[in-house]
Amino acid sequence: EIDKTKKMLQDTINIYQIESEISDDKFEEFKIIEVVNNVTHDLSKLVAKYKHTLHLNLENDITIYGDKEKITTAIKNLVINAIIHSPMENSIVINVISNKKHSVLEIINTGVNITDEDIKNIFKPFYRVDKSRTKHEDFGNGLGLFITKEIINKHNLEINVENIENGVKFYIIFK
Question: How far is residue 134's CA from residue 61's CA, in Å, rounded to a whole number?
C-alpha cells in the first residue's frame, strides 16, 4: 500500500511538472529509436514476468524534436499499459514508421479489446479500464494515460487508441 501511495504521489507531482515545466528550452532533437530501445530495456523484467514476446519494428533514422525526458515518460507509460493489460504470454508490438507527412509510434498489445465507453474515458485522470484488477500488484492508479496525454498535448502532437483485431493499438503521431 505504501508503494502504491508513493507511486500515486509521484504521478501527481509529474502532472504538476508537466503543466509547469515543458518549455521550448528543454526541447532537443533525438532519435525515437533510442527512446524506444531504452524503454524496452528498462521494462525487460516486466515483459519477462508476463511471459510476453516483444516485437520491435523501428525505422532507424526518425528524428523528433521535443522534451526527450517527457516523451520517454509518455512512451514508457504506454508500454507498461500494454504489458500489464495483456493476458499472459501474448505479444507486444512496437512500430515506428514514417511517411512524407509524419512519423508514427504504435504500441500494440494482443489478446484483449477495450469497450467503446472505456476508450472515450481512457485518458481521464484516475480512470481504470479494468476495475476488478485494482489489487493487482502491477496495476497503476489511473494517472499514467492521463500523464501521457498531457505530455503529448504539450508537444502539440496527437495520441489515439483504437481496437484492432484481437488487440488494442495506441499511437502517437509526430508531426
Answer: 40
